[in-house]
Design a protein that fits this description.
Chain A has 268 residues and is mainly α. Chain A has 11 helices and 2 strands; from the N terminus they run ααααααααββααα. The longest helix of chain A is centred in the middle third of the chain and has 31 residues. The radius of gyration of chain A is 20 Å and the shape is globular. In chain B, α4 packs across α5. Classes of the chains: A mainly alpha (268), B mainly alpha (193).
Chain lengths: 268, 193
Amino acid sequence: MSTRNPGIMIDPARQKKRFDLSRYIHLKKDTAPERIVNGIYFENPVFMLALGMCPTLATTTSVTNAVGMGLSTTAILMLSNLFISLLRRIIPERMRMPSYIVIIASFVTIVDFLMQGFTPAMYESLGVYIPLIVVNCIIMGRAEAYAGKHGPLGSLADGFGMGIGFTGALILVASVRELLGNGTLAGFRVMPASYEPINIFVLAPGAFLVLAVFVAIMNRLHIGAARRDDWDPTGKFVCGDCRSCPRVAGCGGKPAADAAVNLHGGRG
Amino acid sequence: MSFSAILMLVVTTILANNVVLSQFLGICSFLGVSQKTDTASGMGGALTFVLTLASFVCGVLYHLILVPFHLEYLKTIVFILIVAALVQFVEMFLKKYMHSLYEALGIYLPLITTNCAVLGVALLNVQKDYNIIVGTIYGLATAIGYWIAIVIMAYLREKMTDNNIPRPFKGFPIVMVTAALMSIAFFGFAGLK
């Protein structure tokens, strides 16, 4: 034991107690099912990568809003992933960012109009957050990290998995907020009539608080995994290439002092 | 809009309707770049500059080009491209003429492109039917609100570094809890409305 470096080695007996889904699910890399499971769980955009924070906080006042936001983002994510993947050999390396932005913004505009026409009530309650899907880091992040380098089928599955992971996360956060803050779920009364709604949960502070607790639970489940993979012996977080890292906003291109900050640097 | 109405708009935008703490715009950099007070302040300054300029340029383009030619539906694409181009221009300008400021802002300048507050304000100006001047003032007030919030947050985070925080809450979650408490505190300004 004395020759082992405590910075990278963790007592295996302790490690087993940690919850780690990757021990139970084995899928071939870069296949459609693997991409979908990856988006829903291993790289869940909200809980694991801390991307797309603005819509997660702003549109989770009710489950209905969360579903609307999640599904419209999923649609845009799949379409933009598919098109960027198909155009990946045509788009020149130096022009890829502006091209991605134009592709994403076009799809956002289309979805914006479709929602305005077919679901006017939803469009009204989501307001400015529909056009703001353009700057949702999940979409740009997936274009840069996956769709720009892989084939169309895998990219479509990746977009679907990420989108469903995002929608699921929004629904989870929204259920807690709506249940505690309003006593309802998707508009239906769930709590008994004697329940006094805790208003703060549907207001701004409740959004921060509920998301903080969810991410803390995820951290609790994954502290072992994060330490195993991401710590080098000097105790610094190593995340490799900053140029391709979607979370460079969190660390500013420099290794941060504690892994948790970098793991959930926050961008979106 | 009368002078008093504009003054009221500025005060409520900075405090009661704070862009980060009650409208959830610009959360990304608010959480990402608030480790130290001086970098947070640099980010706030850079954003104030870009946001004011962007809301002015977007306002001019929307009212003088998009509306007369009935191209309002292109606003999302046009605004995001303006913001991206503007950030690039500001970066080139600062690099050539104000090099010390350019170095101080460093990586934060390009990151403003993906800051949803910039695009959000440009779109809100259209949604709320503000004219070019009121829109620019609204942009400036929003940016000042962001500046205040991120500097307070950075100060609190500096104080927190030595505290014994439960391990799962380290990093991102404790920052969110702090933001929740700040948001409750900013509710006190709601009486200003």
